[in-house]
């Protein structure tokens, strides 16, 4: 079945948060925090409403992506404004059907029109390499604590957009959510079983460990 992509509206917020919870539950840790993160991101100064998109199929929201402003602190002493993509979510029964790819593609189109240089994220290279991303290390881009991280991916929005922009990528502090705040917010949703040691959690832990200090 086809899907459409449109901007998220305030009337969508609760449905999108519920969908995001379903998409991320037990994926990276027992339970999830992404629905709470989405909830607080909308009030963040770095949030870009133009890049808050939902995918709709059959009258229901089946996917969502958001992006925030971020910075590259260049080794040349300059600061480069870029974007952080995520969370991006698709309902489990709608995954592997091109919805996530469609949301990323639309995000790239809009971000390019807005004049941004690049999009960065932390995610599985096996997936994001198929969506136009490459390891940030190839452009000598490191994490905020000056580490090369296997999960850190970058997509330039035009050829050479980050030429000479090697440096440290710093995402917005909103991503560092507090566990007690997540737990309190989650009480407003139907209870779900938390499961440990899933295959996706093991993959996440593997990628998180694949870091090395820059020389």
Q: What's the topology here?
A:
Elements: E1 4-7, H1 13-24, H2 34-41, E2 53-57, E3 60-74, E4 79-90, H3 99-114, E5 118-122, H4 125-128, E6 134-135, E7 141-142, E8 147-149, E9 152-156, E10 167-170, H5 179-186, H6 199-208, E11 211-213
Helix pairs in contact: 1-2
Q: What would you report as the Rg, rounded to the nearest angstrom?
A: 17 Å
Number of domains: 1
Largest sheet data: 9 strands, mixed
The counted number of beta strands is 11
What percentage of residues falls in helices of 4 or more residues?
Answer: 25-40%
CATH superfamily annotation: Gcn5-related N-acetyltransferase (GNAT)
CATH class type: Alpha Beta
User: What class, by secondary structure content?
Assistant: alpha+beta
Brief sketch in words of this structure:
With 215 residues, the protein is of the alpha+beta class.
What does this 3D model show about the protein?
A hairpin with a 2-residue loop joins strand 2 and strand 3. With 215 residues, this protein is of the alpha+beta class. The protein has a single domain (4-189, 197-207), classed as Gcn5-related N-acetyltransferase (GNAT) (Aminopeptidase). The chain has 6 helices and 11 strands. The strands form 2 sheets. Strands 1, 2, 3, 4, 5, 6, 7, 9 and 10 form a 9-stranded mixed sheet that branches. The protein has a two-stranded antiparallel ribbon with strand order 8-11. It has helices at residues 13-24, 34-41, 99-114, 125-128, 179-186, 199-208, and strands spanning 4-7, 53-57, 60-74, 79-90, 118-122, 134-135, 141-142, 147-149, 152-156, 167-170, 211-213. The termini are far apart.
């Amino acid at each position: 079945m086809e899907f459409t992509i449109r901007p998220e509206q305030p009337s969508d917020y609760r449905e999108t948060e519920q969908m995001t919870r379903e998409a991320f539950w037990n994926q990276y840790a027992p339970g999830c925090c992404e629905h709470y993160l989405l909830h607080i991101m909308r009030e963040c100064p770095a949030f870009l409403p133009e890049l808050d998109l939902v995918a709709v199929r059959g009258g229901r929201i089946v996917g969502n992506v958001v992006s925030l402003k971020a910075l590259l602190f260049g080794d040349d002493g300059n600061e480069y404004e870029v974007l952080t993509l995520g969370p991006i979510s698709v309902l489990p029964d709608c995954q592997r059907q091109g919805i996530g790819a469609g949301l990323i593609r639309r995000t790239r189109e809009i971000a390019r029109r807005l004049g941004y240089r690049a999009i960065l994220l932390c995610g599985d290279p096996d997936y994001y390499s198929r969506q136009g991303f490459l390891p940030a290390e190839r452009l000598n881009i490191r994490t905020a604590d000056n580490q090369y991280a296997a999960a850190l991916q970058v997509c330039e929005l035009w050829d050479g957009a980050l030429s000479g922009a090697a440096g440290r990528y710093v995402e917005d502090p909103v991503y560092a959510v507090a566990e007690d705040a997540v737990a309190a917010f989650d009480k407003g949703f139907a209870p779900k079983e938390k499961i440990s040691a899933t295959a996706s959690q093991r993959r996440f832990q593997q990628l998180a460990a694949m870091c090395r200090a820059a020389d």
